[in-house]
Amino acid sequence: MANTENPTKPDTKELIVTTAFRLFSQQGYRDTSVAQIAKEAGLSKGLMYHYFTSKEELLKGIFAHYQSETVHKMDWDSKAPPLENLKKLVDLSFYYLQTQSELRRFSLLLTLQNTVSEELKGMIATGKKQWEAAFEEIFQFLGYHQPQAEALYLSALLDGVAIRHLATGNYPLSEVKQLINRNYGLTPSS
């Protein structure tokens, strides 16, 4: 249990978000109560409701927190070569799989749950569309005949890699990343 004597407002909100994220990832959204989150965070339920008016609002807060972190990392230099930006996005995708697999699992499970609101599903879809738009822009710069189709293909490919990685304990991420890099010309020829 966390020690939360006199936490500052940003610290308290962050504590609630990270605790809820961990419990939702371990137990599922439906099976985690606000009381459990409060107890685990060392806070009262009343204080939790001060920051988030409902469990659904807390879920949206978690997603918004991690989505903004991802969008921040997605920023690239528009003057950089397109292949450099494509490599950055592919690297970022694999970074999240290697270091933030719980976040990827959490997003995937939310997408598939019937208990999640349409608003939250829309937030997830918006995040996905941001990735696809970034890929499409790069493929346009690279002169691909069908940049939107190529962006959707790469996005689906990365989703498939994520699902396989999450479903198995020994998925060869490094080898798959090397293959994607080679197929898109993101590594120097040997």
Attribute tags:
190 residues; mainly alpha
Textual characterization of the structure:
By secondary structure, the protein is mainly alpha-helical. It contains 9 helices and no strands. The N terminus is likely disordered.
Ordered list of secondary-structure elements with their pairings:
Blueprint: H1 9-27, H2 34-41, H3 45-51, H4 55-74, H5 82-99, H6 101-112, H7 118-141, H8 147-167, H9 173-183
Helix tally? 9
What is the approximate shape? elongated
Enumerate the spans where pLDDT stays under 50 for 5 or more consecutive residues: 1-7
Number of E-state strands: 0
Instruction: Give the oligomeric state of the chains in this entry, treating copies of one chain as homo and distinct chains as hetero.
Output: single chain
Please, what is the average pLDDT? 83
Biggest sheet statistics: none
Span between termini: 52 Å
Gyration radius from CA atoms, angstroms: 19 Å
**How large a portion of the residues is in β-strands, by DSSP E?**
under 5%
Structural class: mainly alpha
* SSE ordering: HHHHHHHHH
User: In which range does the helix fraction lie?
Assistant: over 70%
Quick structural overview:
By secondary structure, the protein is an all-alpha fold. It has 9 helices and no strands.
